[in-house]
TrEMBL record, chain A:
Keyword flag Membrane: no
Annotated source species: Streptomyces lichenis
Keyword Repeat attached: no
Protein's recorded name: Xanthine dehydrogenase family protein molybdopterin-binding subunit
Gene3D superfamilies in the record: Aldehyde oxidase/xanthine dehydrogenase, a/b hammerhead, Aldehyde oxidase/xanthine dehydrogenase, molybdopterin binding domain
Domain called Aldehyde oxidase/xanthine dehydrogenase a/b hammerhead: residue spans: 33-139
Pfam families: Ald_Xan_dh_C, MoCoBD_1, MoCoBD_2
Stored InterPro entries: Ald_Oxase/Xan_DH_a/b (IPR000674), Ald_Oxase/Xan_DH_a/b_sf (IPR036856), Ald_Oxase/xanthine_DH-like (IPR016208), AldOxase/xan_DH_MoCoBD1 (IPR008274), AldOxase/xan_DH_MoCoBD2 (IPR046867), AldOxase/xan_DH_Mopterin-bd_sf (IPR037165)
Entry keywords, A to Z: Molybdenum, Oxidoreductase
Amino acid sequence: MRPTATSTAAGAVGRKPALGAATERLEGRDKVTGTARYATEQPHTAPDCAYAWPVPATVAAGRVTAVDASAALALPGTLAVLTPDNAPRVGESDDPILRVLQDHEVPHRGWFVALAVADTLENARAAAAAVTVSYEVRPHDAVLREDHPDAYVPETANGHPGRRERGDAREAFAAAPVRVETSYTIPPLHNHPMEPHASYARWDGDHLTVYDSSQGAHPVRTALAGLFGLEPGRITVVSEHVGGGFGSKGTPRPHVVLAAMAARHTGRPVKLALPRGQMAHVVGYRSPTLHRLRLGAERDGTLTSVEHEMTAQTSRIKEFVEHGAVAARVMYAVPHSLTTHRAVRLDVPSPSWMRAPGEAPSMYALESAMDELATELGMDPIELRLRNEPATEPDSGLPFSSRHLAECLREGARRFGWHQRDPRPGVRREGDVLTGTGVAAATYPVMCDPASASATARPDGTFLVRIDATDIGTGARTVLAQIAADALGVPLDSVAIEIGSTRLPYGPLAGGSAGTASWGWAVHEACTALTRRLADHHGPLPGEGLTAESDTTEAAEATPPFARHAFGASFAEVRVDTVSGEVRVRRMLGVYAAGRILNARTARSQFIGGMTMGLGMALTEHSTSDAAHGGFAERDLASYHVPVNADVPEIDAHWVDEVDTHLNPMGSKGIGEIGIVGTPAAIGNAVHHAIGVRLRELPLTPDKVLAALR
Amino acid sequence: MSTGTGSGTSSWVTMTVNGVEYRRELDNRTTVLDLLREHLGLTGAKKGCDHGQCGACTVLVDGRRANSCLLPAVAQDGAEVTTVEGLAAGDELHPVQQAFLDRDAFQCGYCTPGQLCSAVGVFAEAAAGHPSHVTDPGRASGQGPVELSRAEIRERMSGNLCRCGAYPNIVAAIEDVTR
């Protein structure tokens, strides 16, 4: 086929749309044969490549008074030890965590205070271990508590107002005939992508090339340009295959700065892969959150007031406040509402983004409280939610661009067999086991960022689409090719796609469940523009093909007068062993309304993956701020319990068809995060239904369950 | 040790990887995983934790699955190692590789090589009748192959973490191969 106007149009006749199909991942074969190359696996790695190994601070707060590198430098193969005294000076950064080795302050345990560089990995590790660091230690405070005297209400929490009030929630609560007052605790949680944060950095003269395990190559380039005082054009960042991120690779991390510093200092290419045990302190984490809720309702279940106050921690060097009280601003019709974020600055690592930041903790708290209210009312929890469906977004008063939570709840109830449920808690016994079922709603906002793309029709009849998108496991590469194929009206296998490099047109990071919308819009625009160019073109294509470009800045930044969110309903059945206290999930179901589903196969994987992380949040994942020593006690995968295969039962995800014309040309909402949102509350509510006792501190481990059963 | 002397801190090691014999002088601290990734250019086996806690580095050593990050290479002199790069027969994927594609049994792909090697190890263990934690304790050993039920697959694959949460698809893929 020649990509002339007529043949393109002809190709579209009788062609099945690529979007919506369960297309296999384009890079799937590379991933199952081990040929997909991640950051430090480049086949062209130079023979003189050096290895870097960071040295973390072993005190919770203080100053480095001396770094003795003599023993490390005396070891075979050591090339350099970078310290606050000799490391290359870097420029300013919006993000204080990137200015590593620039001063002697230690803001938290695990902060990098030196970097060993050697000719081999083994020598680098040994050199790092031989570095002796002396400190002047300050008293520290690393434990979050609600009555902390330093707690304050920030202006904003990740862009959301710190406090919002409608009506008079306190008075309405006092006057409500049915009241629930409750509190919940969520511990610190770690992203722990399977691929540690890693970089391969190389200087060629004054050009810096970095292969980085990142959710966005362009943001990494911007950060490095500022730090190293380089024009962005003199930096290339490549993030072609990325072994997960879940938010922790959404912003540049100190390892990439250290790798670039070490490469400049030694004049050799440098590989730096963070040891797993160092990650908890330097790659961000979900702050612990303490929640207080008060719900007031009429006897028929109509909500009259909602109060949600959340307290989170942030570090001394950076304000990052988990927006863990936002859900009530979106979810239910209520005349009186007060939502407040509180933060406490502590001597702790800087918290950051983790899958469904804000929504995951706030919906755990709100949806657990709603379950408590249903119990108090003697009302079915699905009926309670349906009773309080709002006509417009409660906080803004804006109409929803689409909202099919009710459909998700009803469809989920049908599929799950909810209507056979005996509502009485603590009555289903199978030997030593109590069983129960629970439900919770889910929500996640629709976001979209500006992006650019190019689309080229090549003389051989194929097409090339280029955009700096990042595939962290979502299937971005595949879905963007599908979007291109449909916009061009050509078969999917005639579209080649290049992503994951700053050599390509600008794309924003993979985050906020906004990737497909942001990149996809740009791809769609470039491909539609190319189709128009092809229609005007006569005769054979020139050797370099015909190219069209797009820039969605204006379209993506326009704010339509709608509240735009995805919704969902999560269901879980649990069995609780009354002897061991162990909670096992027997089955889970998620039903989502997330706009048009663009790839049925990868979408389902995203949903069940999010639900699995939600299962971890509910039952297994737990980190502890170490009061005595600072930092986290659980720093490896033996102590921080990511769910394993045996923890995960039958999980099913479905979606309701949702047409929403107020989103983007594809009509899609983000799906990468909503799966985690409703799951913890659904499981927690199921545990209450099983044992008849409400547990309010995650995760629901045997110690807590046994204590409740006694 | 048959490794030859090397210097005080290194040894000569011979290892057959995916049917190819390699002989290298290695730092005695070098693990099989780092030998594969940093010396042989076989980056299929992944380093997730370097502590035997995640399973991303799983390879087959003399036919049995092992966390290659826990094996000093010097102690594996003469071993036959199969990595994910050695599972396919030329262009023809191993059935479990094909099943992983068919079932979308991965997302980011970083744990996948370990999952695949682990699955191949599981097939052999089950065929040899090795019990797992969920095998009926009353089942006499030497009673023939253990049937790989979903519970058996889940249990036996629990040394391989997948943070993307592809477990249900991994189980389905492995089930496909056993049928």
